[in-house]
Specification:
about 325 residues, Quinone Oxidoreductase, Chain A, domain 1, Rossmann fold, six-stranded parallel beta sheet, globular, binds NADP nicotinamide-adenine-dinucleotide phosphate
Length: about 325
């Protein structure tokens, strides 16, 4: 029996532990694929799961990692054959099913997206859930009528994985981008990625009224809490806010005024549960018209399974810039 390496997460008697283990390879069931994983990535959710700082897993033990790209080695589904390159992001990875921090991954074929022409396996994981989520925000905002002439797009948590891609992708689509960061020394980096103005967090989080002057045409928020509470009050009529993250808090303190007096829309972005057809379309676009021009500059490091715990801690302390790819 072949064995393989995986980064496993345990919870026994409310005690969290995680590390690399050797597991035995199992053949895929009907409708499943066995994938030889080449690359994965590190997202905020992976750091929460891997450190046990939030209960992301709903079964224990499991292999961590919400993203994977690799080659099919066995297929029990007619749509895929050995040798096909596939991407799997979200769904139940590292929630109720084993995730991408392993040399092999067994998943339902329904979760696999063929790697589009125009992206390498490494590039697909440089994007990973972060790039996909930034593109999903753009997709939903455009469907809801967001246009560049409605005003600048505010992007919070801008030096994070989702934030960097959002800055690059919205700029590439012709929007003026205003980026918000807590990293005073990274304004130049964000301007290089496409931000026309870079603001400190405190410039955005202060508010006094249910409705403030409309500063921005729309927003992509990775932070939640007081940041999102403030943004809802400062969006111009008919603008959209894509609510993505909670790096700064999960609460939302606002009123109905922005929604009923300005027609502002709060769009929930849920990448893990995104329907298959929309996933396929977004991955195609990430390989073509939405492919970030600065993809290589957004990948700041490539690490091994052994380095995961160290990077998780740095990420939760807000020290990581851009994207970290995991090479298997
Ligand atoms: N809804 C979805 O489908 C989905 C998908 C992916 C990610 N997410 C969520 O989106 C968020 C960003 O994910 P990510 O992978 O990009 O994480 P990340 O790389 O760690 O980026 C998060 C960024 O948020 C900012 N930040 C961190 N702590 C903060 C605080 N206390 N107050 C204000 N800003 C803070 C930092 O940016 P600056 O230093 O530049 O301010 C940090 O780089 C996370 O909450 C994640 O769970 C949601």
């Amino acid at each position: 029996m072949t064995s393989y390496k995986a980064f496993r997460i345990h919870r026994d008697n409310a005690q969290h532990s995680a590390g690399i283990e050797e597991l035995e390879l199992q053949a895929p069931d009907e409708g499943e694929l066995l994938i030889r994983v080449k690359y994965s990535s590190i997202n905020y959710k992976d750091a929460l799961a891997g450190t046990g700082k939030a209960q992301i897993l709903r079964h224990y033990p499991l292999t961590g990692g919400i993203d994977a790209c690799g080659e099919v080695t066995e297929s029990n589904d007619r749509r895929f054959k050995p040798g096909d390159s596939v991407i799997v992001t979200g769904y139940e990875l590292s929630a109720t099913a084993d995730g991408g921090y392993a040399e092999y991954l067994r998943v339902p074929a329904d979760w696999a997206i063929p790697l589009p022409d125009g992206l390498t396996a490494a590039q697909s994981m440089a994007l990973g859930t972060a790039g996909f989520t930034a593109a999903l925000a753009l997709y939903r905002m455009e469907i809801n009528g967001q246009k560049p002439d409605m005003g600048p797009i505010l992007i919070t948590g801008a030096t994070g994985g989702v934030g960097c891609f959002a800055v690059n992708i919205f700029d590439g689509e012709g929007f003026e981008v205003n980026a918000v960061t807590g990293k005073a020394d990274q304004h130049g980096y964000l301007e290089h990625l496409g931000a026309q103005e870079v603001l400190g967090r405190e410039k955005v989080t202060t508010y006094h009224h249910a409705l403030e002057r409309g500063h921005w045409g729309g927003a992509v928020d990775n932070v939640g809490g007081e940041m999102l509470s403030s943004i809802t009050r400062k969006i111009r009529p008919w603008g959209n806010i894509a609510a993505i993250g909670l790096a700064g808090g999960h609460e939302l303190n606002t009123t109905v005024m922005p929604f009923i007096l300005r027609g502002v829309s709060l769009l929930g972005i849920n990448s893990a549960g995104c329907p298959y057809e929309i996933r396929e379309e977004i991955w195609q676009r990430l390989a073509t018209d939405l492919k970030p021009r600065h993809l290589d500059d957004i990948v700041t490091q490539t690490v091994t399974l052994e380095q995961l715990p160290e990077v998780f801690d740095q990420m939760l302390e807000g020290q990581i810039m851009g994207r970290t790819v995991v090479s298997l």
